[in-house]
Amino acid sequence: MYQSYKMDLAGRPLVVDINRVGKQANGCAFMHYGDTTVLCTATASEKPRDGIDFFPLSVEYEEKMYAVGKIPGGFNKREGKASENAILTSRVIDRPMRPLFPKDYRNDVTLNNMVMSVDPECRPELVAMIGAAIATCISDIPFDGPCAMTQVGMIDGEFIINPSQEQWKKGDLNLTVASTREKVIMIEAGANEIPEATMIEAIYKAHEVNQTIIAFIDKIVAEVGKKKHEYTSCAVPAEMFEEMKKIVSPAEMEEAVFTDDKQTREENIRVITDKLTEAFAENEEWLAILGEAVYQYEKKTVRKMILKDHKRPDGRAITQIRPLAAEVDIIPRVHGSAMFTRGQTQICNVCTLAPLSEQQKIDGLDENEVSKRYMHHYNFPSYSVGETKPSRGPGRREIGHGALAERALEPVIPSVEEFPYALRLVSEVLSSNGSTSQGSICGSTLALMDAGVPIKAPVAGISCGLITKPDSDEFMTMVDIQGLEDFFGDMDFKVGGTHKGITAIQVDIKVDGLTPAIIKEAFEKTRKARLYILDEIMLKAIPQPRETVNKYAPKMLQTKIDVEKIRDVIGQGGKVIQKITAECDVKIDINEDGSVFVSGVDLDKCNKALSIVHTIAAGPEVGSIYKGKVVRIMSFGAFVEIAPGKDGLVHISKLDKARVEKVEDVVSIGDEIVVKVVEIDKQGRINLSRKDALADLESKKNQ
User: Fold this and answer.
1) Which residues contact residue 317 at a Cβ distance below 8 angstroms, ignoring those fewer than 6 apart?
2) How far is 96 from 38, CA to CA, in rounded Å?
3) Is 630 buried (19+), middle (13-18) or exposed (0-12) by CB count in 10 A?
4) In the CATH scheme, what architecture does the domain 3-223 have?
């Protein structure tokens, strides 16, 4: 017999089945929201993992294609590696839950969320988020929950709680908020230039809904929750800290970390570690955890410096931004490039333009998202932090940072009608000391403008950090955090936006949540910093997008033809369109609605191809001038092809201004000549004149 619990959530029934399936897991919740079904499990190892100084939490979000009645693509016809959406969803589940596990817990924990059915009205990502929290709360795994998540959309200025997939895709806001009983613990958002005040209102609307979910979880835990198991603490002993302070005084540690050069600081810490290693040579137990102990000592020192002394490790004021620099057009032959530098963080951004046929196809669970025109990829090589390790492709962090930058810039990308290109941005991290994702936003904006992309507004990104005092309302926020402040701080509050408003948010925290005062102050500080970066740094490097695309970029022309004429343009077996692309050295894409896109590096050849398409689709017009190829010569004239499958006769009397005795005296087979359509008879035969075309062109020249 299983237990079933039900609540109304945003006008739809949320049903949770406990002890129905997954009985071998530590905790399992069989989730139903509308017809969306997700199986959520929480499992922990019996013993801690040896030799690690972190909590080994793994969150999986599995998309099963049968959930939407599809068979996976590819040769094997089964689900392969996780999609980008699956990875991003896993990260969104991980970020609010990780801080609620004990800091000294080292048992492996896996939260698995398997999507089994998708109702387009009920997004499976949301169901997985809630289900992961429920499965963990009812398990015997130590967890300081519950937490809950709510999504907010906005259409025509109205907030929508837990929007459908279509509303999520078309709305002006994609906001996900996680909460504990009292505080907001995670924020993730994409927005269409929404003001800070509106964003705060949406956040706390979600927070209110989260409280109803938490009350629901509390009821479930009270009835079926397991007692939390005991575990072996891996905390650093207090007596070890006391001995360390005798060997390395707090003043010495403060001096070691107080520098704006990352390499110098790391060398100072290495010297301190060697000193402590020598002192504890006889204590194997302490030596085993010395790395974690030094980390904690350094962390306490940095936090004390900031919170009590108002001193930052690199000597900056609390509201001071690191030295900034921006430049464009730094890489030859690419379509657009830029470099953005913030302190020791340096990002090179490259923009590539391509025909629309190059846009990414998405084989996922959301029927509203089948392709991606704008792509952003982020690379974080080991040399950027002075380390050495082989590249194994992008990890979850790289995919997450790329998605954040993509989300920040997507609202300002021009429409297909305005700019008929597929776009790819690549952010190459050349040097890192914190805020690389926000540097990618700034640099990518510059690269887009350098490439001649008519973006609606420039976007800048900035982060805000936080230090809190335990068991107190005292806190300190600081703008533009570097790596050390991120590692040892309590928050990384990332905001991207324009002059007008916010386009993206990602908030990571390591404490039990954020108060309204913290959120309000973080928004205000990031807004001021964002405007400064835009006006004083970025727009001084390039004040507006270039008027034309780079000479090495494909030139894109578009038109629309009657859908009945698509077959004529393509030709039997594709012969006509293949001939056009070969002759003009272009690429032609035709959509089902009759939209035609012509791309190529040479603009003249693109125009020629477009003219040929027009001629085929609309037919030749009397009085129009065309450039055609001589395909046949007769004694009475020459036949000229003005478009594939469409040729006409230039009578010998119409070949030239002067009298022509022999056709071969003027033209040969294969010659390209200008001709004017002078007549189309009742039988559809086209009469052309080279003489009239030359006269018209000369007349226009003399005007």
Assistant:
1) none
2) 19
3) buried
4) 2-Layer Sandwich (3.30)
Tokens 């990260």: give the residue. 91
**What is the enclosing helix (H) or strand (E) of 298?**
helix 290-307
Q: Residue with structure tokens 């350094």?
A: 298
Nearest by Cα to 90 from 120, 124, 125: 125
Which residues lie closer than 8 Å to 499 by C-beta, 6 or more apart?
457, 458, 531, 534
- 631 and 667 Cβ atoms separated by less than 8 Å: no
- In the chain, DSSP finds a helix count (H) and a strand count (E) of 18, 29
Q: Where are the domains of the chain?
A: 3-223, 238-307, 324-541, 554-619, 622-703
502: nearest Cα among 197, 205, 208: 197
Element (H, E) at 690: helix 690-702
Q: What does residue 141 show for φ and ψ, rounded to 5 degrees?
A: -80, 130
Is the bond preceding residue 72 a cis peptide, omega within 30 degrees? Answer: no
Contact 676, 630 (CB under 8 A): no
Could you check whether 238-307 and 324-541 share the same CATH topology? Answer: no
Q: What CATH class is the domain 554-619? A: alpha beta
Give yes or no for a contact between 376 and 126, defined as CB atoms under 8 angstroms apart.
Answer: no
DSSP letter for each residue of 229-286? PP----PPPHHHHHHHHHHS-HHHHHHHH--S-HHHHHHHHHHHHHHHHHHTTT-HHH
**Which two three-digit tokens encode residue 634?**
């007769």
Comparing CA positions, the residue from 480, 462, 459 lying closest to residue 527 is 462
Selection from 212, 448, 483 nearest residue 350 by Cα: 448
Q: Are 202 and 113 in contact (CB under 8 A)?
A: no
Burial letters 236-265, b for 16+ CB under 10 A, else e: beeebeebbeeebeeeebbebbbbbebeeb
Buried b (16+ CB within 10 A) or exposed e, 681-703: eeeeebbbbbbbbbeeeeeeeee
Average pLDDT of adjacent 10-residue blocks, the chain of 703 residues: 95 97 97 97 94 91 94 85 94 95 94 97 97 98 96 96 94 96 95 96 97 98 96 87 90 88 88 91 87 88 86 88 96 97 96 92 81 95 89 89 96 94 96 93 98 97 91 87 88 96 94 91 96 97 95 89 88 89 90 89 89 84 88 93 87 90 91 92 89 88 74
Q: Give me the amino acid identity at 23.
A: K
5: helix, strand or coil: strand
Rounded Cα distance, 84 and 394, in Å: 11
Four-way CATH pick for 324-541: 3.30.230.70, 3.40.50.1820, 3.40.50.10320, 3.30.390.10: 3.30.230.70
Distance from C-alpha of 22 to C-alpha of 31, rounded to nearest angstrom: 12
Kindly state the DSSP code that residue 535 receives in the 8-state scheme: I
pTM for this predicted structure? 0.86
Secondary structure (H, E, C), 330-394: CCCCCCEEEEEEECCEEEEEEEEEECHHHCEECCCCCCCCCEECEEEEEECCHHHHCCCCCCCCC
Q: What would the two tokens of residue 73 be?
A: 């693509």
Q: Which of 610, 626, 613 is nearest to 565 (CA)?
A: 613
- For 622-703, CATH gives 2.40.50.140
Contact present, 557 and 610 (Cβ < 8 Å) = yes
Beta bridge partner(s), residue 600? 555
Instruction: Give the number of other Cβ atoms within 10 Å of residue 293's Cβ.
Output: 22
Instruction: Report the alpha-carbon distance of residue 8 to residue 33 in Å, rounded.
Output: 10
Nearest 5°: phi and psi at 309? Answer: -95, -10
